[in-house]
Structure formats: structure tokens, C-alpha cells
Amino acid sequence: MVVPPDNDVLWARSLNHAFGGSPALCGVSLGVREGEILAVNGPRGSGKTTLLRCLSGQIVPQQGEVWFNSTPVHTMGALNRERLRRERFGWIGPDPQLVPELTAWENAALPLLLRGSSHRKARAAALEWMERLDIGRCARKRPRALLQSQRQRIALARALVTTPAVLFADEPTATLHTADRAQVLRTLTTAARSHRITLVLASHDEEVATLADRGVSLVDGRRITSVHDAETEGRAECSLSV
Ligand SMILES: Nc1ncnc2c1ncn2[C@@H]1O[C@H](COP(=O)(O)OP(=O)(O)OP(=O)(O)O)[C@@H](O)[C@H]1O
Predict the structure, then answer these.
(1) Where is the ABC transporter domain (predicted)?
(2) Overall pTM > 0.80
(3) Which of 50, 63, 101, 125 could pair with 24 in a Cys bridge, judged by C-beta atoms 3.0 to 4.6 Å apart?
(4) Closest CA to 198 of 93, 108, 89
(5) Nearest Cα to 216, choosing from 71, 7, 53, 46?
(6) Pocket of ligand 1 contains residue 23 by CB under 6 Å
(7) Number of helices (H) and strands (E), helices first, in the chain?
(8) Tens digit of pLDDT for each residue in 139-167?
(9) What is the DSSP letter of 120?
């Protein structure tokens, strides 16, 4: 068995996954360094979501390996993967998927409440993140009374409230207007940097490339190297070696 490099918090080797015989990932390998912001680019249907779902343990690739901090994720049972996701990972998708009956702060605090944190602690942590994300004034409102951009920030607060080791963001700005997109992306990347949260960010948004440390590109489930990727990889390596 090949052991992953020490400085990679996440490492994937030769991932292959198909849905009903249609390949979604074909031999994708990559490493993600601790605290890095990695952009995953590619056109619709190129395998970005499938890659993030494999890396985060939501699905087990049909072939290949996924490692988190030198622990093999691909050989874990469903319960251990579930625990890993709950305790170490965060996820934000294109749709906020808030619980309509709960207030904004209760939605943001949900991962802590489910972990058994006290109501007071969970509320304080949720409100702190909501203030940082500039939605503190929405705390007592229910999702239906909020704008889509506010709802997506609540989902962001919910993903960040546990300070995950790795945050997976799958098209987090897809349902937002252009102005909101830029702001949510900047907020997300700033929060990740200030808390040293590793961020794997799949997006069509061109601004992502300027905010990430490095990018990988997928086409038809395969990893390709573009000139831009080679440049950004080079930049990341240079900045690490300074
Ligand atoms: N649950 C599923 N069942 C069947 N096919 C799927 C499923 N999920 C993904 N696929 C297929 O796998 C391929 C890769 O899809 P995936 O969602 O990973 O790509 P993507 O790059 O994230 O696309 P998008 O930008 O549209 O979200 C596509 O052909 C898609 O139709």
C-alpha cells in the first residue's frame, strides 16, 4: 500500500466512480495541503460533485483510495465515515437546505446541538459566526423571511460553526446574483484562511481561481492540466518555499 505524503491533509489516488455504467471519475489523483484553498474547476457534468463526495466520505469510490490525515477513508464503514464527516468535515452545497421551522441561529447552531453541545454554547458560537458573516441581525428570523444570499450565509455559518478541518464547498454561489456571489466567495475564503480551515471549492465562478491557492481541472471525469493550473501550482510551490 502506498502511504500518502505527510503534508497532505487529504489525498486521493486513482479514483474511479461510475453511475449506472456511466463514468463520473476516471483515475483522478490529488493531494490537498493543510490550510490550502483548492479550487476544483470544470464544466457541468465533469465530476466535481462526485469528487467532493468521494473526498468527504459521502460515497466510497468504486476504485481508488482516499486518505484523511493518514487515515484511509475508503476502507471505513458507513458509521465511521458518518462520524468523520460530522466531527472533522463541513459541507456547503448550492442550496442552503435550512430547516424551515427553525430560526436562523438555530439552523446555524444545528451541528453543535446534534453533537450534544449545551444550548447556550451552541447559540453563542452560531451568533459569533453570524456576526462575522454579517447576518447577525437575521438571527431570530426563519428562513422564509430572508433573502437567498442571507440563507446561503446561514448555511455557511452552519458549515463553519464546528471549525471543521476540511470544508467542502460545492458550487456555493450557484443560486446567487453576481454581486452576492463575489461577497459570499470572499467571505468563505477569508473565513477559511483566518481559521486555517482547508477548503476544497468546486465552482464555475471565475473569481474562484483568483481566491484559491491552487486549482485542479476536470473534464469528463479526468483531471487535466491547463496552463493556468500549471501557473497556479507553480505559484503555490514558490510561496511555500519562500
Ligand atoms: N447520483 C447520480 N446518479 C446518476 N448519475 C450521476 C449521479 N451523480 C452524478 N452523475 C453523473 O456523473 C457525471 C458527473 O456528475 P457531477 O455532478 O459529479 O459533475 P459536476 O461537475 O459536479 O456537474 P455540475 O457542475 O452540473 O454539478 C455526470 O454525467 C452526471 O450526470
Answers:
(1) 10-242
(2) yes
(3) 50
(4) 89
(5) 46
(6) no
(7) 8, 10
(8) 999 999 999 999 999 999 999 999 999 99
(9) H
What is the C-alpha to C-alpha distance for residues 93 and 175, in angstroms, rounded to an integer? 10
Q: Quote the ligand 1 centre to 54 CA distance (angstroms).
A: 12
Q: Is beta strand 89-92 parallel, antiparallel or unpaired with respect to 166-170? A: parallel
Is there an atom of ligand 1 within 6 Å of 189 CB? no
Q: Is 25 in the pocket of ligand 1 (CB under 6 A)?
A: no
Q: Evaluate: CB of 24 within 6 angstroms of ligand 1.
A: yes
Question: What pLDDT was estimated at residue 190?
Answer: 93
What's the complex ipTM? 0.95
> How many other C-beta atoms are found inside a 10 Å radius of the C-beta of residue 73?
23
- For residue 173, which of 58, 90, 91, 96 has the smallest C-alpha distance? 96
Set out the domains of the chain in order of their start, with CATH numbers: 8-241 (3.40.50.300)
In which element (H, E) is residue 174 found? none
**How is residue 104 annotated by DSSP?**
H
Grid coordinates given for 113: 446541538
Say if residues 127 and 162 touch (Cβ distance below 8 Å).
Answer: no
| Residues in the chain, pLDDT under 50 | 230, 234-242
Task: Give me ligand 1 centre to Cα 23, in Å.
Answer: 9
Please give the distance, rounded to the nearest whole angstrom, from the Cα atom of residue 80 to the centre of ligand 1. Answer: 25
Residue identifier of the C-alpha nearest atom 26 of ligand 1: 44
| For ligand 1, atom 29: residue with the closest CA | 45
Euclidean distance between CA atoms 146 and 158, whole angstroms? 16
Res 203: pLDDT = 87
Ligand 1 atom closest to 53 (CA):
18
Cα(8)–Cα(67) distance, integer angstroms: 9
